[in-house]
Amino acid sequence: MRITKYVITSSESDILPSDIAMKIYGSKYDVNVKETCFGVVVNGEEEVINALIEEIRSLDPAGIFIKDRGFPPGDPRRCRGRRGGGARPGFYMIEAEAKMLPMISRALAATGEVPAVPEKKKPLMPNKLEDIIKEGLI
Fold first, then answer.
1. What end-to-end distance do the CA atoms of the chain give, in Å?
2. Residue 71: exposed, middle, or buried by beta-carbon count in 10 A (0-12, 13-18, 19+)?
3. Most C-beta atoms within 10 A of its C-beta, which of 28, 51, 65, 125?
């Protein structure tokens, strides 16, 4: 079965989308590749894509992310050239997700003990505040 996946790089990664595309072009895999501003879109047989993804992720395990895509590159249901231009449906979601990737990359790359998140202080209830004020006046 043919599948399509996004390979998205974190903006803090040393690996560029063009580096990934060149690695795929030079590989033994028979896949379709489309380079984008945030990574590449790869389309091919499931076993081939999964093997290729393993190789690509090994370049920067904490900075390269994989996302499933429901349509192959150039599909008329998603191709903006056939829809009259504009952003592809889903582009804004990928753009929003890409903004979070640097934080996720840093967390994945971090080693050692992760400090616990401090417990949030509960707000002071009005009646407790009144009691404190009264005690201060007496």
1. 80
2. middle
3. 65
Who's near 33: CB < 8 A, 6+ residues apart? 21, 24, 25, 40, 41, 42, 43
pLDDT in tens, 34-70: 998 889 999 999 999 999 999 999 999 999 999 998 8
Digit-coded pLDDT (tens) for 62-106: 999 999 988 888 787 777 777 777 776 777 888 889 899 999 999
Q: Which fold has domain 2-109?
A: Alpha-Beta Plaits (3.30.70)
* pLDDT (tens digit per residue) in 6-41: 999 999 999 999 999 999 999 999 999 999 888 999
